[in-house]
Structures are given as C-alpha cells and as structure tokens.
Specification:
Elements lengths: L1 H8 L25 E7 L3 H14 L5 E7 L8 H10 L5 E7 L4 H9 L4 E3 L16 E6 L2 H13 L7 E4 L15 E4 L2 E4 H4 L2 E3 H6 L5
Parallel strand pairs: 1-2, 1-5, 2-3, 3-4, 5-6
Antiparallel strand pairs: 6-9, 7-8
The chain binds FE2/S2 (inorganic) cluster (FES).
C-alpha cells in the first residue's frame, strides 16, 4: 500500500511515528500446557511469529506445530529462522512444515531433505497425516481470507472444537481505534469492531457474527 511505499523511500535518520498496539491478542496464558498449532499463510506469518517464539522461549506449551504455506521460497518471511526451525525445531518441541506453490531449486532441495515436512501445495496439504489431542490443543490461524474456510474445515474434521480455534483478522483494519467504521462486521444482534473487539476471534465468534470471515 501507500504507507509501505512511503516507508521504503525513507532514509536513515528519518523519523517515523508508531501508535498502538490496539485490540486484543492471543490468550497465551489460557493456552499454557497445551499443544499449539500455528497455521500461517503468506504474510500471516508476521503476527504468528511472536506467538511462535514466545512458546519456544518460555517452554510453557506442550508441542508447537507451525504449518506455513507460502507462494515461493523467496516469499518465506523470516526465512532463516523458519529454515533453522525446520531443521532443528524438534529439540525445542517445535515442528515446522512448509508448503510452497511455485517450484524452485531451493524448494526442491528442502523437499528432498525433509520429504515429510516440505511439499508442493497449499497449507491444508500439511494437515495430511497429522492427528492431535483435541482436548489439549489450540489452533491459531492467520493468512489470506480465502485460507480460513479450508483450514477450519481441516480442524473441524479432526474434531477440534470451535472455541479452540483462534483467528486473527488484521487485514480488515484501518484506523484501529473504533472511529472509521471500516472494520465493523455482523448484524444488529451481533456487531463487532475487528479493531477493538479483535483482531483475534474464535471460530465461535465467527459462527455468531455474520461476515466475520
Ligand atoms: S478500523 Fe476503524 S473502526 Fe475499526
């Protein structure tokens, strides 16, 4: 967008103002002691990265899975970290799986080395063969809007309850402080401001609020 282009034109020493953070976050305390499945698509890796490292650094969670779908090798955010965790994450109770859409020598190389964790396809392909204890697992999702429906279907098929599925819907925000109305979803019986009431919602919220996902 315009803001990103503007930031790219800035020079060292220029001053930038940052406001926030606003809204809620993932309920990290509530999830302590449980398994976490982080499902990221594209830029959705950005908000989930802090969850990933918090879980690894604190060791307060059982097992952590990161299922990450990316367009191409070059598009992997925090690539060095992700590749490092792909190779060595097991020692930190963290399992990384990666799906890519565009073939490249780097992806093929990774797939050869980690055939059970890297594949050509989309993020839902990474659920294949995965089972988890639905009574002790939470799923956290962030990615492009089209991804949510398919990821949630995979989770519900495995009987994870809607209250254990958290989604972050940052894309809908503009002012971030409940003024512009850009992020309002729902009908008169259930209206939500994504910026103030979210951006993190459970799938239960989505079921009761029309247009949330
Ligand atoms: S983003 Fe403006 S009201 Fe929510």
């Amino acid at each position: 967008g315009r803001m990103t282009k503007f930031i790219h034109k800035m020079k060292e020493g220029d001053i930038i103002g940052i406001r926030g953070p606003y809204g809620n976050g993932f309920p990290m305390e509530k999830m302590e002691g449980s398994n976490l499945i982080l499902v990221a698509g594209g830029l959705g890796m950005a908000p989930l990265r802090s969850v990933l490292w918090y879980a690894i650094d604190t060791g307060k969670y059982e097992n952590v899975w990161l299922l990450y779908g990316t367009k191409a090798y070059e598009d992997i955010l925090f690539r060095d970290e992700i590749i490092h965790l792909l190779k060595h994450g097991d020692a930190m109770n963290c399992s990384v799986k990666l799906a890519y859409e565009v073939e490249s020598p780097s992806c093929i190389y990774l797939e050869r080395g980690f055939s059970d964790r890297v594949c050509k396809g989309v993020v839902t392909d990474l659920f294949r063969g995965e089972e988890f204890d639905v009574n002790n697992t939470y799923a956290l999702i962030c990615g492009p809007p089209v991804m949510y429906k398919f990821v949630i279907r995979e989770l519900l098929d495995r009987k994870l309850s809607p209250g254990r599925i958290y989604m972050t819907l940052e894309r809908r925000m503009r002012c971030g402080i409940g003024k512009c109305g850009h992020c309002i979803v729902g009908t008169s019986t259930s209206i939500k401001y994504v910026c103030k009431d979210g951006p993190v919602f459970t799938y239960w919220d989505a079921l009761s609020t029309r247009g949330l996902i």
